[in-house]
Amino acid sequence: MVICGVELTGSDAVVCLLNRDRGQFNLPECKVRKLSLPKNHSREDLQQFQAAFAELMAEHGVTHVAIKERMPKGKFAGGAISFKMEAAIQLITGTELTVTTLPPALIKSTLASNPLPVAFADTGLKAFQEAAFTAAYVGHLQS
User: Which of 37, 99, 111, 123 could lock 11 by a disulfide, CB 3.0 to 4.6 Å apart?
Assistant: First the structure.
């Protein structure tokens, strides 16, 4: 099963694909590291972002999306644009895509009981993809 981990930051959706086959994890080849929402944030821009995300998921056979949840208020609050992007991802229709949000506390407790099987530096991913990779890993353990 292929899961796409997502971290929403600013107007970008940082993605990381993680496959689990017979208990073994591997990283499918994916040239896309992030999808960006144009600065206007218009209805058409959101629809274009949603279509591009859905196309990426279909292209790689992704069945599950795990989004790292952002806090609605406080020091680590997510911006309004990131919540629009999350809604656009959650409202993708016409596919068998399951979307879940993972609270930071759940990610932390899951990693405490099931540490990553490999150091992030050894994955070959870019540093900014670490949160998306962790979300995909925890998404696999929660499904």
Answer: 37
